Amino acid sequence: MTRRIGLAACQMGPVQSGTSRAEVVGRLIAMLERAAAGGAALAVFPELAFSTFFPRSEIADETLLDSFYEDGFPNVETAPLLYAARRLNIGFAIGFAELIRDGGEARRFNSMALVDRSGTLRGLYRKIHVPGSEAPEPGVTVHLERRYFAPGDLGFPVFDLDGVRVGLALCNDRRWPETYRMLCLNGAEVVLIGYNTPLYLDEAPALAHLRMFHNHLPMQAGAYQNTLWVAAAAKAGLEDGQALIGGSCIIAPSGEMAALAISLQDEVIVHCADLDLIAACRRVNFDFARYRRPDQYRRIAEA
Amino acid sequence: MTRRIGLAACQMGPVQSGTSRAEVVGRLIAMLERAAAGGAALAVFPELAFSTFFPRSEIADETLLDSFYEDGFPNVETAPLLYAARRLNIGFAIGFAELIRDGGEARRFNSMALVDRSGTLRGLYRKIHVPGSEAPEPGVTVHLERRYFAPGDLGFPVFDLDGVRVGLALCNDRRWPETYRMLCLNGAEVVLIGYNTPLYLDEAPALAHLRMFHNHLPMQAGAYQNTLWVAAAAKAGLEDGQALIGGSCIIAPSGEMAALAISLQDEVIVHCADLDLIAACRRVNFDFARYRRPDQYRRIAEA
């Protein structure tokens, strides 16, 4: 019997500063309902889904900064999303700003939570490839992820969800071939990605027309080169004055685009993913046990 | 001043069994002349350019098998190509079957030679990712590279040609992200690739319409993710009854297709490559020293 799983990518329109968690969570639940109605068993939401993409701003006020983070996940404001998952019998992954208070020390990560169909938190991923800078740089669009987030320290975990092996990645991670390869070697069959990608960068005005190409190219290559399903959800549209690209998509292990968002708003795309395609595609060029040459790749893992 | 180099990809139509080296070398020299006339300083020819793609056949006769290999490179039959390079002031890379006789022991590699503008052999690459099998397998198109060639043992070398750092790769290597990453970390600015790719595979009839997509996707991703120039040359057309795809191309560090062959015959495409684009593209997402996480990639280099 063919193994299948319904995948949904839940693209979000912008979340302007000051929008309440309750309003955002309401939008997310509405999308989860559409995903479940469309036959999805697993949905992905964007990176930093509960708020505006705040690393585009220099935020001096600690209380304001903290307001963008989840102090514990789930918490009282985000728990309704997990109850909805249980009610709808659908799992999901969602990006959020993670704040941990270890005694007096605050630790902050750009994280993604994976919740199963029973509404249970199954695990976390913390973004490995944190882009941007710690302080604004001349001529470069402000992007302070490296001030607001520590580098991920959980590796590239893969979770078993009802027999389907699921890996997670966030935004800039999707540009790096190592992300897909590590997830593949760790056993992933499906990779869920959330992202926020500005259309314009001051440091690369001549590349603006290529932003969507540079969004899809590494994800399609990652799917093909590792024979994985990829589902990726963007936050899109004009958010606090910054244009974010959409292009949320579901990509087959052949690298083919199986579903693609066509708006810059809240939009749910669903594809019933044939997991047997993974083995079929792997047989052609990517029998890893037979053909990989790890002894030749040492420099990739050397500092 | 902008650093530029004229790159040429010299696609070859088929080389049927029994074609003499003299005839093939004549075709290659004619293409080298067109490349030089078009402003190229560096050209790439296909994998196993001097003969038919013989791994598609089971060859029991040792003398016949040996006839496909170069016993030393350059040799009396291939040297005219190096003289032409010197005369035309153009360097080139070319794929060939390499036979080494160490005492009584024969060693065989699927290799690529790099020759500079003075017609001097500068170095060799030996294919790292050798595909296919050692014996025919049921239901699978015969592809005996693993019988006829040992796995490459020279790593991913990068050569300095008049101040431009050049890496080499062959056919199946181009599907593996590790190839580009290793060459990038070894300092390559330009990657020259030769390939022979059948359109139909018995083991994957449903993927035939994707063969060109699967040709370009990993090369464009490899160029983008490592901000390299890629020039790739196919052997194309109906060769000894097997249809080979063309699609020879020159790809910018942005992943954009800068030039693309439009035939299945001998065809030369040229692009004057701006090497400063490498730094411009790297600045956006791929400041490797700042953003790579090699400590997180260990499994990639572990057997």
UniProtKB/TrEMBL annotation, chains A, B:
InterPro entries: Aliph_Amidase/BUP, C-N_Hydrolase, C-N_Hydrolase_sf
Keywords: Hydrolase
Signal peptide: none
Record keyword Iron present: no
Keyword hit for S-adenosyl-L-methionine: no
Domain CN hydrolase: 5-277
GO molecular function: hydrolase activity, acting on carbon-nitrogen (but not peptide) bonds, in linear amides
Entry's transmembrane regions: none
Protein name: N-carbamoyl-D-amino-acid hydrolase
The organism of origin for this protein: Acidisoma silvae
